Amino acid sequence: MKPPPPRPPRDGSRKYHDRVARKYDAIYEDPFWKFHDEVTWGLIKPFLPRTMPAACADLGCGTGKWGLKLLKSGFEVMFLDHSAAMVEEVRKKLESNPRAKKATLVVGDIVGMPELATGAFDLVTAMGDPLSICSDPLRAVREFARVTKVGGVVCATVDNQLAALDYYIERGNLDALEAFVKSGRTNWLTNNEAERFELHTFTPLEIERLFADNGFEVIEVVGKTVIPGRDNRKLLEGEGAIDRLVEMERRLARDPASAGRAGHLQVAARRR
């Protein structure tokens, strides 16, 4: 049985990300995101390729935060994003980067990536929830499987459905809550209707099954951040505060049940 045809790209998402590309990094320059990023990199580092040369892909790369870290680590890196403006921000950063020759830039959609060769990558990252933003997460994960080498690893993040329940509960709309629980779908809300787009959210079990059913052995599903640092910024103040919070996150993440209270889920899965 043939799969259904791919859904059209999300123009609202592309328009939004094109508009914010130049100021995107500034949006995330504060102590909470420093804490969040240290947690994220700590979850990626165990899966860095052990041998050289090795090729990595940063899918849904945005302004290149994680791909640039991989490039600095000595790997060849493919940067791909559906927003041409985001890819342009990566290009600007590479102008003064001595490792720029090891980088390739592509404007493309993770749901279908004909520009990327089959079995090309030892490590694939998909941070910033591109699986939640894309038009078809199933097709995207199948594409992840296609471009990842056997034995290679994908590290990806998604929006956590369990964390989003409070939004609907606070509004007291039982019909909306029920629809969200059934579908896992919600919307990115912006003042500009042309920039609105649908989001897919996942429970820990759902994201595990999505990868396990499509060519991967799931290594771990971790919630981040379990400690809601944005709720009280005082936790992030003071010398050594972020290091202490990162260590607490590591302890909490050892219990899979902790993922239920986190805003996002990060999955690591090995290509079978």
Description:
- Strands 1, 2, 3, 4, 5, 6, 7, 8 and 9 form a nine-stranded mixed β-sheet that branches.
- Helix 8 packs antiparallel against helix 9.
- The radius of gyration is 18 Å and the shape is globular.
- The protein is built from eleven helices and nine strands.
- The protein has a single domain, classed as Rossmann fold (3-Layer(aba) Sandwich), CATH 3.40.50.
- Helix 5 links the parallel strand 2 and strand 3.
- By secondary structure, it is α/β, with parallel strands linked by helices.
Question: How would the blueprint of this fold be written?
Answer:
Elements lengths: L10 H10 L3 H4 L3 H14 L10 E5 L5 H8 L3 E6 L2 H11 L8 E5 L13 E6 L3 H4 L3 H11 E13 H11 L2 H10 L1 E4 L8 E6 L1 H9 L3 E9 L16 H13 L10 E8 L1
Parallel strand pairs: 1-2, 1-4, 2-3, 4-5, 5-7
Antiparallel strand pairs: 5-9, 6-7, 8-9
Helix pairs in contact: 3-11, 8-9
Offer a few descriptive terms.
single chain; 272 residues; alpha/beta; Rossmann fold; nine-stranded mixed β-sheet; 11 helices; disordered N terminus
The biggest sheet, with number of strands, parallel, antiparallel or mixed sense and barrel status, is: 9 strands, mixed
CATH architecture: 3-Layer(aba) Sandwich
Distance from first to last alpha carbon: 23 Å
CATH topology: Rossmann fold
If helices are DSSP runs of H or I spanning 4 or more residues, what is the number of helices?
A: 11
Strand content: 15-25%
H/E element sequence: HHHEHEHEEHHEHHEEHEHE
The CATH H-level homologous superfamily: Vaccinia Virus protein VP39
- Considering DSSP H and I runs of 4 or more, what fraction of the residues is helical? 25-40%
Class per helix and strand makeup:
alpha/beta
Radius of gyration: 18 Å
Mean pLDDT: 94
